[in-house]
Amino acid sequence: MSDATTGVCLTVNGLSKRFGGFNALNDVDVDVQRGHIHAIIGPNGAGKTTLFNILSGTLTPDKGDIRFEGKRIDTLKSYRRAELGIARTFQNIRLFEHMTVLENVMVGEHAKAYASLWSVFRKTILQRPFAAAPEERRMRERAVELLDFFGLAGKRDADASDLAYGERRRLEIARALATDPRLLLLDEPAAGMNPQETEDLDQHITRIRARGVTIVLVEHDMNLIMGISDRITVLSFGEKIAEGLPSEIQSDLAVIEAYLGEDEIL
Ligand code: ADP
Ligand code: MG
User: Fold this and answer.
1) CA gap 104, 109 in Å, rounded
2) In the chain, what are the domain boundaries?
3) Four-way CATH pick for 1-85+182-266: 3.40.50.11740, 3.40.1170.60, 3.40.50.300, 3.30.70.240
């Protein structure tokens, strides 16, 4: 049976990564179903961000393979994975601080439009120069739509650096969505948010999924995780120690033990 018929969006198989003598990930398997919000949780240092870095192509695994919509992607460069439809945000927000809010989202659109050298060639050499204008206008309209979706339209001309913390997190997600992904990787999107901002984020993530985007979510906020996840994978010291429905994870003894001494409460 092919992945297209089984509805698997992402398959991670036997993934391992060592840093020096340290196993950041050890033989990790994860299947993410299309249309799911799939959470990856685990104590600090469990390997969650390392997994994201490998999925997005900024780190190379020592072992294992990754399939996105049935295609091997673990040998592809980051930009090729973005072209195929994978986008991410970062645990430490990465914005273009001195560009406007609108420009930050448009950078995401350009990254998609000009991801390959061939498309740059086509756009700059083969098309008449003025042909770019309508496309630019479409990109701008789409960027404004995304800002509207995230409640940031009123701030479109502000510098990214002038936004409040929760707004910055939302802008980073808007920029990731501007690449029109089918898989979105969110690394601790609620980190540093107040309860109201977290509540809003919850709604946004649910609405992003409703647009047909599969979401893999690394998060420490257990209320958020337990409320919106379809499935949860738990990592501890680089190993997968549990996987299941939120209700199953909440009562899993190995998971509770892994969290002892941590601030998060299941
Ligand atoms: P998490 O996101 O679950 O908190 P990380 O994936 O960031 O964990 O880190 C897992 C472990 O790997 C940590 O012990 C971290 O110090 C280590 N680590 C992560 N990246 C590197 C790196 N580039 N070089 C060396 N060690 C790293
Ligand atoms: Mg992390």
Assistant:
1) 9
2) 1-85+182-266, 93-180
3) 3.40.50.300
Let me know if the fold of 1-85+182-266 is the same as that of 93-180: yes
Cβ–Cβ < 8 Å for 57, 83: no
For domain 93-180, the CATH class is alpha beta
The closest-lying atom of ligand 1 relative to the alpha carbon of residue 218 is: 2
Q: How far is the CA of 131 from the centre of ligand 2 (A)?
A: 43
Q: Which letter does DSSP use for residue 60 in this model? A: -
Nearest ligand to the CA of 51 is 1
User: Does residue 133 register a pLDDT over 90?
Assistant: no
Q: What is the pLDDT of residues 177-219, one digit of tens each?
A: 999 999 999 999 999 899 999 999 999 999 999 999 999 999 9
Q: Hey, which residues does 72 pair with through a beta bridge?
A: 67
Ligand 2 center from residue 173 Cα (angstroms): 17
CA distance 266 to 259: 8
User: For ligand 1, is residue 258 a contact (CB within 6 Å)?
Assistant: no
Over the stretch 22-67, which tens digit does the pLDDT of each residue have?
Answer: 999 999 999 999 999 999 999 999 999 999 999 999 999 999 999 9
